[in-house]
Amino acid sequence: MTLTVFADRMSQPARAIIIFCKVNGIDFEEARIDIFKRQQLTPQFQEINPMKKVPAIVDGRFKLFESHSILIYLACAFPGIADHWYPGDLFLRAKIHSVLDWHHSNLRSGAAGYVLNSTLGTALGLPLNPEEAAKSEKLLSASLRKIESFWLKGRGRFLLGSTQPSIADLSLVCEIMQLELVDEKDRERILGPHKKVVKWVADTKNATSPHFDQVHSVLFKVKEKLQSQRAVGVTSQNVLPSKL
Amino acid sequence: MELKVYCDRLSQPSRAILIFCKANNAEFEEVTIEIGKGQHRSPEYAEVNPMKQLPAIVHGDFKLFESHAILIYLASTLPGVADHWYPADVRERAKVHSVLDWHHTNLRRGSVGYLLNTVFAVAFGMPGDPKAAAEGEKLLLASLARIESFWLQGDGPFLLGNSKPTIADVALVCEVTQLEAADENDRDRILKPHTKILKWVEDVKSATAPHFEEIHATICSAREPLKKLKAQADHKSE
Predict the structure, then answer these.
(1) Which of A70, A177, A237, B13 has CB 3.0 to 4.6 Å from B67, enough for a Cys bridge?
(2) Predicted local distance difference test score (pLDDT) of residue A244
(3) Between β-strands A29-32 and A3-7, what pairing exists: parallel, antiparallel or unpaired?
(4) Interchain contact, B150 vs A102, CB within 8 Å
(5) Protein fold of A3-77
(6) What is the dihedral of CA B122, B124, B129, B132, to 10 degrees?
(7) How many angstroms separate the Cα of B99 from the Cα of each of B32, B71, B75, B93, B108?
(8) Hey, how many other C-beta atoms are within 10 angstroms of the C-beta on B209?
């Protein structure tokens, strides 16, 4: 086994990579880097990824970071990966690149900003920022609308109208899953109106079962802890996986 | 198959695609969509790109937007494109993808945040946000430092230590050159300390001569009109 995936299952892009590996039977070692304990800042991890971010991979002596690059590399470098994940057809492939690119400044920016500023910030030692959360929510909602009106158009149930999922579906759906952490009322307000998105998340989960749920179990444990704290009116401290 | 490139030479990713096409002797039609005149918001352009952003291409019946996706597509489909632009080797290619991905949330985000809120705000009739400008500048400077300390490490003069440019070099250099629209003092304050960056820009310019300079004429000549607009706006608010 030459592949090591450096990941924290609380990280959206890390989950996408782990699910992809498991669904495709790629042999790998998962090396946990706990973001909330700041393990990505250690000198050891800096050797792996000088940008000090997860996820990252090492395959033999080859190091790589940036989750989209990693997903593409894995789809191309490992045997037996079905074509729909990262099609050989250059037109289809180009469309996948375009949604992955769009993701950075749209869904990712909106969703991650919203979750951080409304909920998760305190766990990282940052103050919650309702003003920033509102800005991020605006971008998040606009992105969800765009996914429904444009990226999910077509015959199939997946992005770009595909009948089968691609690496883009995994990447974007794992981002949306992070919303499980926010207050149920807010999550329903933001996600509820987007029935097509909700269905697509379920379709992606089914297409990658049982791995999708397994890989998301950490997230759901943290969600439960946050919900019980909210029920007694406590802020989101001490919900980290390491403290469960 | 006819290739149309919808672009505005004031736009960083538009320039990257134009330079790449010309450097590779591509046959294409350049269709100018002027952002300053709001042409990207027209219903006609929405047919080309529903995201109403530049650049976009139409190749026969095939429509595509997002400049990195376009650069990859063109490198893979245009005839006679040398391998160094977008290497076939899976690992070298992965590295090119990683710098293009990094670019979105680093150099690009920093540069746009800074320039939009200082130079371009006025041109678009918006008040600039000084806090956003400061944050943008911080990220821009950190990104330039990172390019010098990491992405330009290696034997060759180009990103990833390559001896010849890739699509990533044109994409990122065109972001750096957007500073040509800024006041010279600001541009020099930001860029002059980064001698490695300045050399790299020159190397990319030489590797894509004469197209680089020709395509950059528009952004370079935007500085004076933008300065005048800002002076007028400052005068009005006094």
Answers:
(1) B13
(2) 46
(3) parallel
(4) no
(5) Glutaredoxin (3.40.30)
(6) -120
(7) 28, 14, 16, 10, 12
(8) 11
Percent helix, strand, coil in chain B, to 5, is 65, 5, 25
Q: What is the ipTM of this complex?
A: 0.96
Q: Taking all residues of chain B, what is their mean pLDDT, rounded to a whole number?
A: 95
Under 8 Å between Cβ of A132 and B107: no
* A98/B50 touch (CB, cutoff 8 Å), yes or no: no
Which residues in chain B come in under a pLDDT of 70? 238
Q: Is the Cβ pair B97, A105 closer than 8 Å?
A: no
Question: End of a domain among B28, B49, B83?
Answer: B83
Same domain as B69, residue B15: yes
Report the CATH number of the A90-231 domain.
Answer: 1.20.1050.10
- pLDDT tens per residue across span A26-46: 999 999 999 989 999 999 999
CA distance B117 to chain A (A): 17
Task: Give phi and psi for B46, each to the nearest 5.
Answer: -60, -25
What is the nearest CA distance from B173 to chain A, expressed in angstroms? 18
Domain boundary among B29, B57, B83: B83
Domain extent, residue B21, equals: 3-83
Tell me which of A70, A90, A97, A132 to substitute to probe the interface with B (most B C-beta atoms closer than 10 Å): A97
Least Cα distance to B32 among B3, B66, B9, B65 occurs for B9
For B20-75, what is each residue's pLDDT tens digit?
999 999 999 999 999 989 999 999 999 999 999 999 999 999 999 999 999 999 99
Query: What tens digit of pLDDT does each residue of A6-26 get?
Result: 999 999 999 999 999 999 999
Residues B97, A101: C-beta atoms closer than 8 Å: no
pLDDT of residue A133 exceeding 50: yes
Q: Which residue has the tokens 């304050």?
A: B189
User: CB–CB of A109/B87 below 8 Å?
Assistant: no
In this structure, are B175 and B73 located in the same domain? no
